[in-house]
């Protein structure tokens, strides 16, 4: 039987022991062996801390985000084989989707967050700058840097893919290398996904390692700077947390343990209401999804005492209709437990529950294309705790399978009290349409819950469900649930980052943080900052504007245009007892006037105003005052751009408005979208002519078989097609891919060197030469390019067919020609 290899120190290594046999949870057949015996864990941790840390921490947050996206896309293309393995763990297609594509989705989510919200630097400035001296020469702020260590991630058996990717999404984005230790059960699926992550070549060396089997003494080698993330039982987690190596070295430890999560049916949710039906459906789903093997599953069903019988009957009927069996069958709605060992453990816990509570539903279902002897199948089991404030077994013992307990309550006070008797839960849900009941119950139970999920008719269609942790929200809970926090958007990164206070002068803080600080040196030049591309803008680039004297007419006109007739702007007789001496200019007029002073009227790389932050008005501006503006580049944020948008970044500009006495009257931060410099040549005939001067009959291509004249005539033919001479009658790209291809015209990625024209046979020559020599071809090409410019000025709405990109308008043709010309000019070494 094949042994699963471990990925340690950059190599695939087999264990040297007998290992643990891993079985198909449906058929009982052996699938693989996991073995970690003989592995050098000390070397593995050292490799992560040195090679892995150096490679990951030197990348920027933005680049790490791009890395996550590339990995997720690579895995998504190979998902079919993961599903085939997932069925062997007992998971249905729906269960597998949550695990596999839910894991990829977490990578995509964190990639998007990084590219929208994180800096293009290896560190992250956290919070605002604090002025800690009277004159502003001494400032303070905080930066976050990757913790200098390795993260050991110990995952549970129920989610072999999502469990790994959920933790890696934050550790990799934070810049911390990781060692993944999945549960042996289902680790053959983790191993398959991990192999592809390595084979993709996207992750830097040392970023991730994999230990498939028992953890051995790996935690003996942790040290200060390392971290441990554990998902599993609370008992095991507490033992690991108290290990001398962990506790004694101040190793960061995050625990996400199983918990006795509850769902509360509102007093208003009687049979016949949408909420009652939603409740039954939600509880059934949470009992049967992954065969109840979810740390977020509903274990305690808290219902109004007068509805106990109704819920029992409705839930029993719903469970009766849930077909159990082989996950490969289309009929199956619930698969098996992950293995016989887990089955025996659930049976043991069920027997403990029986000692104090009554088993009221134990549907012995017939299995679909499977049998109970070979597979780890278990029918759903429903208990009744008729006295939940006296019988504590339901609040203490968790059977980690399709097992839940029904219990009654009288009022919102009791519902919240029962919810909290779980002693700390990952999630509690409330299903009700009574907002008062929801509000009272939720804040009373919140202290013992990591997440509260409210479901009713208003959000049911778009709800993600009680049991689904989301990347943008925290996953974790207090007390029994482990006291840990995972994901939660960017908050999930903080666990892996060291927060450091930085103090110094404005210039020092600007140098360290790469963010302009008020009081730091400004850099003035003749070139207007708005005429610079994103790459050219430097932090501290500044502009001092001319002055503008505010008049009474300005104030009156702005009142009329804006409809802002607040008395301080319009009624000089009403100012007694106010802070104003006379009618005052509107704050937004000052900001608008400032923009009028600092903007550049000439078209340039600035695409649009993107937003406004932290606008404050410090002193009134009256008619007769003269304002001057200082505009300074404060911060640059790289930005991922999709679709038909110009590649760009966000530049934050500090706007300081001063009056004639040099007093600051207004400070704001404006955000602009600034285009990135295109790597493609401009369609300028003079520039093109200079480039072509370097092309002769003897110029050899760097790739391909074209001659110089063939290349020029090929480009001219492309321009003629864009004029409809001749009109291409067909696009060879399939309709379903056309939008994606057209979108690609807008990005800054170059055309691939080996791209074959889809409309040419392999042995077909490009075109029959029509010009007598290269010089004649060059001149004809330049003449045609002039015609192109004139044609689209006269026919701005014209569209013509392209063989690859379909019907293109003026803008698209220009983008296509820029890429195409650059591609072939580079082919011949002209640029």
UniProtKB/TrEMBL annotation:
The keyword Disulfide bond does not apply. One of its GO terms (molecular function) is oxidoreductase activity, acting on the aldehyde or oxo group of donors, NAD or NADP as acceptor. Residues 12-499 form the Aldehyde dehydrogenase domain. Keywords: Hydrolase, Oxidoreductase. Residues 538-639 form the MaoC-like domain. Pfam families: Aldedh, MaoC_dehydratas. Residues 460-484 are annotated as: Disordered. NCBIfam families: PaaN-DH, PRK11903.1. This is Oxepin-CoA hydrolase / 3-oxo-5,6-dehydrosuberyl-CoA semialdehyde dehydrogenase. It comes from Chryseobacterium oranimense.
């Amino acid at each position: 039987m094949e042994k699963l290899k471990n990925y340690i120190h950059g190599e695939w290594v087999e264990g040297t022991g007998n290992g643990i046999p891993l079985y198909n949870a449906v058929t009982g057949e052996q699938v693989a062996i996991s073995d970690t015996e003989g592995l050098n864990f000390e070397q593995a941790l050292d490799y992560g801390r040195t090679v892995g840390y150096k490679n990951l921490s030197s990348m920027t947050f933005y680049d790490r985000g791009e890395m996550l996206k590339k990995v997720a896309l690579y895995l998504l293309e190979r998902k079919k084989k993961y599903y085939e393995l997932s069925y062997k763990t007992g998971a249905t297609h729906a269960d597998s989707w949550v695990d596999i594509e839910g894991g990829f989705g977490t990578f995509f989510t964190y990639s998007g967050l990084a590219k929208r919200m994180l800096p293009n630097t290896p560190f992250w400035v956290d919070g605002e700058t604090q002025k800690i001296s009277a004159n502003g020469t001494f400032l303070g702020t905080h930066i976050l840097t990757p913790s200098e260590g390795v993260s050991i991630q110990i995952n549970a058996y129920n989610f072999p893919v999502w469990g790994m990717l959920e933790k890696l999404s934050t550790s990799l984005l934070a810049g911390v290398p990781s060692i993944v230790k999945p549960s042996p059960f289902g680790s053959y699926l983790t191993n398959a996904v991990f192999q592809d992550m390595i084979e993709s070549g996207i992750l830097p060396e040392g970023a991730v390692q994999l230990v498939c089997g028992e953890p051995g003494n790996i935690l003996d080698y942790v040290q200060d700077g390392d971290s441990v993330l554990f998902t599993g039982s609370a008992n095991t987690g507490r033992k690991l947390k108290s290990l001398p190596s962990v506790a004694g070295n101040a190793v960061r430890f995050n625990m996400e343990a199983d918990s006795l999560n509850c769902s509360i049916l509102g007093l208003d949710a009687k049979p016949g209401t949408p909420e009652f039906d939603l409740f039954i459906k939600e509880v059934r789903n949470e009992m049967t999804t992954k065969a109840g093997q979810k740390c977020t599953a509903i274990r305690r069903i808290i219902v109004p005492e007068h509805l106990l019988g109704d819920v029992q009957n409705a839930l029993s009927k719903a469970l009766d209709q849930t077909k159990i069996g082989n996950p490969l069958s289309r009929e199956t709605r619930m698969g098996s437990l992950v293995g016989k060992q887990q089955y025996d453990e659930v049976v043991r816990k069920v027997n403990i529950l029986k000692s104090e509570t009554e088993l009221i539903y134990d549907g012995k279902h017939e299995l679909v294309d499977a049998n109970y002897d070979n597979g780890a199948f278990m029918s759903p089991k429903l208990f009744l705790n008729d006295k939940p404030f006296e019988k504590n077994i339901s609040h203490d013992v968790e059977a980690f399978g399709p097992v839940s307990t029904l219990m009654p309550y009288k009022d919102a006070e009791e519902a919240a009290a029962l919810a909290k008797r779980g002693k700390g839960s990952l999630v509690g849900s409330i299903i009700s349409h009574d907002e008062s009941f929801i509000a009272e119950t939720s804040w009373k139970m919140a202290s013992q819950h990591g997440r509260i999920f409210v479901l009713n008719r208003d959000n049911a269609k778009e709800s993600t469900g009680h049991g689904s942790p989301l990347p943008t929200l925290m996953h974790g809970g207090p007390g029994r649930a482990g006291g840990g926090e995972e994901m939660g958007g960017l908050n999930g990164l903080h666990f892996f980052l060291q927060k450091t206070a930085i103090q110094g002068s404005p210039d020092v803080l600007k140098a360290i943080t790469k963010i302009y600080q008020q009081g730091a040196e400004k850099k003035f030049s003749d070139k207007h900052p708005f005429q610079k591309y994103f790459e050219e803008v430097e932090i501290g680039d500044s502009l001092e504007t001319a002055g503008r004297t505010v008049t009474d007419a300005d104030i009156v006109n702005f009142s009329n245009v804006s409809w802002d007739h607040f008395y301080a702007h319009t009624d000089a007789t009403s100012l007694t007892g106010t802070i104003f001496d006379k009618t005052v200019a509107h704050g937004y007029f000052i900001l608008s006037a400032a923009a009028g002073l600092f903007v550049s009227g000439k078209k340039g790389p600035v695409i649009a105003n993107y937003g406004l932050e932290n606008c404050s008005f410090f002193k009134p501006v009256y008619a007769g005052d003269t304002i001057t503006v200082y505009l300074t580049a404060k911060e640059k944020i790289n930005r991922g751009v999709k679709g038909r948008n110009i590649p760009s970044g966000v530049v934050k500009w500090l706007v300081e408005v001063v009056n004639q006495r040099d007093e600051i009257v207004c400070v704001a931060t404006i955000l602009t979208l600034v285009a990135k410099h295109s790597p493609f040549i401009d369609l300028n005939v003079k520039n093109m002519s200079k480039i072509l001067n370097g092309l002769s009959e003897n110029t050899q291509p760097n790739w391909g078989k074209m001659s110089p004249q063939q290349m020029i005539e090929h480009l001219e033919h492309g321009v003629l097609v864009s004029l409809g001479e001749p009109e291409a009658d067909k696009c060879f790209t399939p309709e379903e891919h056309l939008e994606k291809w057209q979108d690609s015209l807008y990005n800054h990625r170059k055309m691939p060197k080996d791209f074959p024209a889809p409309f040419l046979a392999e042995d077909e020559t490009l075109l029959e030469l029509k010009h007598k020599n290269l010089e004649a071809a060059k001149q004809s090409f330049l003449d045609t390019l002039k015609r192109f410019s004139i044609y689209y000025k006269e026919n701005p709405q014209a569209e013509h067919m392209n063989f690859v990109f379909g019907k293109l308008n003026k803008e698209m043709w220009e983008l296509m020609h820029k890429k195409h010309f650059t591609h072939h000019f580079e082919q011949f070494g002209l640029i």
